[in-house]
Design brief:
The complex is a heterodimer of chains A (37) and B (531). Chain A is 86% helix and 0% strand. With 37 residues, chain A is mostly helical. Chain B is 67% helix and 0% strand. Chain B has 18 helices and no strands. The chains are: A mainly alpha (37), B mainly alpha (531).
């Protein structure tokens, strides 16, 4: 059963949101302390 | 939760892997294959980490130095922790998620099949770097699994390899989590509403969110560590205006949720096993979901209970102490619900149920000692003693590992189409249970008497309890060879009675009600409908 095109788009959208959250945490923790310096 | 299915579209399966032999495993994008890879990888790392633990216990059998230099002893404790956390327990739960989540929600596979392959194959690379660091000049990192600065800013190239390995394994975890969340949110079968999802799927969904929030924080911390070591920054170097205690704050902001990452999917497995063998629906399904979410949220505001001795204001200690104690409430809800599920159930005690009941008994002891550790004035006394070692092994071995054993025995008939050897399974349970307690219970007394952790030598009065612990550890290690034999019998050798579609009559999730044992290579050709 191959996912429909719409399903694949939904999946990609969810992944981008989750990936962005991860990136924000990664950069955020470092930038916070770079800014504090 | 119950699932009644009106669709039986699995009858026309076509087993096809484009490659045979080793290439099948390297190129596979099938969630079952990848689940199997995760489980074999994690079991291998469990044996490697176990060997290191036996090296520790052999040294501690007697006071004085027997086998290892103190530096190498510290490498053993550090690598044992890192390998067990990042190489054994976490990948094992991801293996279970790969096998079970799509089948339990009626999805054909994971949302991102190729990403799934990549998530797995990063792990052996990371593990090779980690284990290989023993052989570089200066040996492996010896800073403890917490890799506290300033120790970790000073060590040799083994530390760099560990940092690189953690980056790789962290990236694998994040990609795996994105896959699990996307699959769970977007690919459930019609009728499989969120509040009908099996508890195992719920606990993994929440765990995956935790991973996405905290693995990048660890990645940030170790990146800063790397720049401190090689690029002249001073994030954690007091001589350059940095703060080593800051590393502890950042590490534990990752580290405490990490504890729940290693136990919440275990809660999910236990929540599947107990109703199946009590032949009753899970008591308080929705409260279980809310309790899991509460534990996850609270895990973000308790990190400094690992740091009561660094010197923090009383108000800070009180906040972190009370917040930690608060976690006992949702955890208590869970234990209560498991017991209430068993209450007046038609229970039988096959191996999965033995491990589940054993889990409740022994994990709860670890939970109680956790409460004791959370009380700041007590923690200041027992910080960095064997009491802490006893506590977290009651949580991670009797908790995470026993739940993994329960899950393996529960689902292996589904995965392989063969029943495991029940008699040997029960031997495995009792030997593990007894030797686990022989190993770790005496450590409470050692800790209360003041024996420090991560030290290869000790004062004479600690000898007897250490000898008991070492004997128990070797017994526990040998018991796991029995487990290896049980696995080989049911998987590689294909021995054991054929398992029916639903060998456990109380199991009612989709993989039992809808798929044969073993399930076809591609689970659902037509989407099932849950009514």
């Amino acid at each position: 059963m191959t996912p429909e095109r719409e399903q694949r788009q939904n999946n990609r959208r969810t992944a981008w949101v989750l990936g962005s959250i991860a990136l924000v945490f990664f950069l955020g923790i470092m930038l916070k302390y770079v800014m504090l310096k | 939760m119950s699932a009644v299915i009106d669709d039986h579209g699995h009858a026309h399966d076509h087993e096809h892997h484009p490659y045979g032999g080793i290439m099948r495993w390297i190129t596979t994008t099938n969630h079952k294959d990848i689940g199997t890879l995760y489980l074999w990888f994690s079991f291998t790392m469990f044996l490697v980490g176990g060997m290191l633990a036996l090296g520790i216990r052999a040294e501690l059998f007697q006071p004085g130095l027997q086998f290892w230099h103190p530096e190498f002893f510290n490498q053993l404790t550090t690598m044992h922790g890192l390998i067990m956390v990042f190489g054994a327990i976490m990948p094992a739960f991801v293996g279970f998620a790969n096998w079970q989540v799509p089948m339990m929600i009626g999805a054909p596979d994971m949302a991102f099949a190729r990403l799934n392959n990549w998530s797995f194959w990063l792990l052996p690379v990371g593990a090779t770097l980690l284990v290989g660091s023993f052989f570089v000049p200066g040996g492996a990192t010896a800073a403890g699994w917490t890799i506290y600065a300033p120790l970790s800013t000073q060590m040799g190239p083994g530390m760099d390899l560990a940092i690189f390995a953690l980056h790789i394994m962290g990236a694998s975890s994040i990609m795996g989590s994105i896959n699990i969340i996307t699959t769970t949110l977007n690919m459930r079968a019609p009728g499989m509403t969120m509040m009908r999802m099996p508890l195992f799927v719920w606990t993994w969904l929440i765990t995956a969110y935790l991973l996405i929030a905290v693995m990048p924080v660890l990645a940030g911390a170790i990146t800063m560590l790397l720049t401190d070591r090689h690029f002249g920054t001073s994030f954690f170097n007091a001589a350059g205006g940095g703060d080593p205690v800051m590393f502890q704050h950042i590490f534990w902001f990752f580290g405490h949720p990490e504890v729940y990452i290693m136990i919440l999917p275990g809660f999910g497995i236990i929540s599947q096993v107990i109703p199946a063998f009590a032949r009753k629906p899970l008591f308080g399904y929705s409260s279980m979901v809310y309790a899991t979410a509460s534990i996850a949220i609270l895990s973000f505001i308790v990190w400094a209970h690992h740091m009561f001795t660094v010197g923090m204001p009383v108000a800070g200690m009180l906040f972190f102490m009370y917040a930690t104690v608060l976690i006992a409430v949702p955890t208590g809800v869970k234990v209560f619900n498991w017991l209430a599920t068993m209450w007046r159930g038609s229970m039988t005690f096959e191996t999965p149920m033995l491990f589940a009941v054993g889990f409740i008994f022994v994990f709860t002891m670890g939970g109680f000692t956790g409460l004791i550790c959370a009380i700041a004035p007590i923690d200041i006394q027992i910080q960095d003693t064997y009491y802490i070692v006893a506590h977290f092994h009651y949580v991670l071995v009797a908790g995470s590992l026993f739940s993994l054993f329960a899950g393996f025995y529960f689902w292996v008939p589904k995965w392989t189409g063969r029943m495991y050897d029940e008699k040997l399974g029960k031997w495995h349970f009792w030997l593990s249970m007894i030797f686990f307690n022989v190993t770790f219970f005496p450590m409470h007394f050692l800790g209360l008497a003041g024996m420090p952790r991560r030290i290869p030598d000790y004062a004479l009065q600690f000898t007897e309890f250490n000898q008991i612990a070492s004997i128990g550890a070797f017994g526990f290690g040998l018991s796991q060879l029995l487990f290896l034999w049980i696995i080989l019998k049911v998987t590689v050798l294909g021995q054991g009675a054929k398992a029916g579609q639903r060998p456990w009559e109380g199991a009612d999730t989709l993989e039992w009600t809808h798929l044969p044992s073993p399930p076809p290579y591609h689970s659902f050709h037509e989407q099932p409908v849950v009514r």
